[in-house]
Amino acid sequence: MQIPEWTKPALYGAATGAVALAIIGFTWGGWVTGGSAQDLASKRSAIDLAAALTPYCVERSRTDANSVAVLAEFTSASAYSRRGIIEKSGWATPLGAEAPNKDLAQACALALTPA
């Protein structure tokens, strides 16, 4: 069986086109690998969770029996230590969780910061 003369250049062109398409797609086309997509989805999920639970945290700050003392400590603290105060108070611990959510604590600290 004889292979036509044009087959070799056509295969080289197809391979070169595939490589160029992959380079352009991943560089400028917005394509991502599965691992990158998973990382982005995980980060976005944490941000959305914190945004959804911020009203819960603010409400807990209003109904807590210790809220006056904690809010006094919160307003006098530096911006860097406010998240830790929210975590320590338990306001950023969602129902059923054993540990406070750091993203929620940060969002709650921003919501509770006096304007």
Note the run of SSEs as H and E.
Answer: HHHHH
N-C termini distance: 82 Å
Can you give the helix content as a percent range?
Answer: 55-70%
Number of strands: 0
Radius of gyration (CA) equals 27 Å
User: What low-confidence regions span 5 or more consecutive residues with pLDDT below 50?
Assistant: none
How many alpha or pi helices?
Answer: 5
Instruction: Give the amount of beta strand, in percent.
Output: under 5%
Tell me about the largest β-sheet: none
Q: So what's the overall shape?
A: rod-shaped
Rounded mean pLDDT is: 92
Backbone structural class: mainly alpha
Explain this structure to me?
The protein has five helices and no strands. The protein has a domain at 44-115. The chain has 115 residues and is mainly α. Helices cover 70% and strands 0% of the residues. The mean pLDDT is 92. Helix 2 (34-63) crosses helix 5, helix 3 (67-76) runs antiparallel to helix 4 (82-89) and helix 4 crosses helix 5 (102-112). The chain has helices spanning 7-27, 34-63, 67-76, 82-89, 102-112.
